[in-house]
Amino acid sequence: MQLISCYVENFGRLHRKEFTFTEGLNVVFEDNGWGKSTLGAFLLVMFYGFDKKEGKRYNELEDERKRYRPWQGGAYGGRVTFRKAERTYVLTRSFGEKRSGDVFELREASTNLVSGDFDEDIGLRIFGIDRESFLKTVFIGQNECSKVETTGDINAMISGLTGMNDDINAFEEADAALAEGIKRLSPDKKKGLVYRLEDDISGLEKHVRNSAHLEDTLQELRKLRDHEASGLEELKTLREQNHHEIRRLEELQPVFACRDRWKDFAQEADRQAEEARKMRERFPQRVPAMAELEEITEQCEELNTLKGKLDSAEFTQEEKAAYEALNKVFSGHIPEEEDFDKAIMTACSCRDVLSEMRVRALSSRKLQRLEALRPVYSGKELSEPLLRMENLWEERCQKLRTLYMDEEELSDLQKELRRKQASPFASILMIPGFLFLLGAGASFIFHIYEAYTLYAAAVGGFFLLTGILMRLIRVSSGKRKLMTDQKEIREEIEGIRSRIKDIEDTLQSFLAAYEKKYREDYVPSELKCIAGELEEYRDLEKAAQEAADPALLQEAEGLELELAQFFQTMSLPLPAENEWLDRIYRLQNSAGQLKALQQKKAVFRETESLLQDKYNNYAAFFASLGIPMRETPTRTLTYVRDMTDDYLDALRDLTRAAEKRDQFLEENRDILSKLPEDADQMPSREELRTRDTWLEDQIRESRKRRDGYEKRMEEILEALDDRREDEERIVVLKEELEAAKRKLVQLTLSRQMLRDAQKALIADYKDPILEGFRKYYSMLTGEDTQDFRLDAGAKLSLEAYGRQRMIGALSSGYKDLAGLCLRMALVDAMYPKEKPVLILDDPFTNLDDEKTRKGLEFLEKAEERYQILYFTCSSVRS
Description:
By secondary structure, this protein is α+β, with helices and mostly antiparallel strands. The chain contains 26 helices and 13 strands. A six-stranded antiparallel beta sheet has the order 2-1-4-5-6-7. A four-stranded parallel beta sheet has the order 3-13-12-8, with helices on both faces. Helix 7 (193-210) packs antiparallel against helix 23 (685-762) and helix 13 packs across helix 17. 16% of the residues are buried.
């Protein structure tokens, strides 16, 4: 299995990050806080989903879903591209607030069709182990090296070491089958057969107990139904009687209507007669004629007109004070309306000119902005330079992509060169050569001159020279071309980096000239900002030039001089600009008030003499009627006229009402003769209809109650049938329950015996794992590993001073070394064929410099067999 690439949309602090992985060792070297551990967690979650610990009772540190929720918001998830069994897949996951909101999708890369090769448990299907086992072997988190222990999945994976796959598979299949059988029969799980049978029996027994009262309830319902049916018949009889009364009343309705109409006519005639009598009693002596009232009304209107004219012409205290004050204001001269209109037009024109000048002037904020932009953009044309800078930025991006591809090619060439330099057979020949020469040298030092000394030196020299020649021949065969290719690519990389540096220096100088900082992610936006500021500067400069217009200034000064001359004619100074119109309107209003007061004073003197002559003519008229004068003649006349109109109207109404009464009686004498004697005691139509509605409601409610009783009786009869079926079902279920319990006991004992046998078998796997551990530990430390022991549970111990001690007693560095080597041994044992991806999150944190160097050498060797993702924040450990 090989990772090809991954894209993180949002996960923790990672936002829209894309990573490409190569075969062998992939090093992610970034500072603390960049998100290396988050990237490792992202890959873990993409294959295994989030940890089961989630929900309200877990905080953000315990709940993995909450801990890696996007810091910046947005979609939660990403995709991973990987190769498995010669097929390439694209795995996409998005995560919601809860597990139910997660979305899983797997497509085959070559066709982009949804693939059903793996489900949401894709990690278990690909790696053959669950999430817990993955974290204890393949995924090595920071400060997690020493935490190693086996699980059921690990034991199952390493079972192939002993050549007993069939036995182990039989164990697993049998254990799974027994576990599934126990689960199906479990009395503690809701889906277990024993649990369900006990629950069903309990429910049925409870239902039988609760239905013991059904017979009594059925008898009571029968009595209620019969009683309700009897009451319903009585209500129907009452309704028929009421319908008969309604039909009789409808037949007599024309007679009753005629009687009511005659009563209305008679009552109206009596009321009008009483009203006419009251109206006549309001005149003590006589009732005036209408012609007499018309004549006196015309005279009274003339009197009222004169009185109103006199009242309106008399000065009030305010008008008197205003008259005296206005005479002082205009003692010398009262301007005409034409003078005021001209002054108003002059003030408006002057104000408009001044407003136009203010509108054209720039605000203080715009002036400050213009002063800030002028030193930067004055006299500059930026269209071509900006276009050139944008082209340079595009060229830089293209160069970076080319640089990345060249660096990948260079890395591949370096791997090929190292592979060609390695010659296992030449090294094997050189080792005995060294040994023979070493023996010959020792004989010479200790003065042991025997024939075999020369023989050993000759043989050793032969082996050594042969190994060296084979190594040189193998290296020289392909090294020259590879080194030539490396040199060309390095020169090309240096040229690209030089060109990128020149472009970045040019962009930095250009942005600095316009007071912008060179920031890699913001260069395009900074170039757009410069173009926008240049356009803003040109608009502000043009507005500033239009603001200064000498013609407007001269026009405003001339108009202001005309206004000053107008106010000078009234010995008044020129007010402030915002008071011009207000002062002119007030003076115009004051001049009009003075003229109106002068005219009003003349009218008052003329009207006062006429009013007194006409006032005395009305007393004789009111005295002849026996009605005293009221406050004014008008009120008295209105009072008399209203009483006269009321009296005449009453007489007319009385005549009409008597005529209608007599005419109706004559026309309907035959109908009124049919009126029954008990007509006054008969109920009204409204009463009968109200009673009919009430009876209908009562009948409906009674029928509803009766139907409810019958429905309830049917339900009880069905419940009684169900109870009998439940009693029979309880007997059957109890027999099934006893059989299920016996089978559960048998399955539980069988599984326990099977597991005991499996534990004894697992103890045989420890020797191959220990051998792998010793190989890796010796590779990393160069120390002897014979004192290490491994138990059947993959627990390491060290034999020292006559007893075995757990590796937890070692220093942090040695614990991490031992844990890393044991993990690698387990992975080798678990995956003898297709290798998984190893994820290492800075596992050498606790190692010293020498062991760290050996650890990095270990990774370079391990990359020949594994694809490795190695995260670190230290240059020493990279």
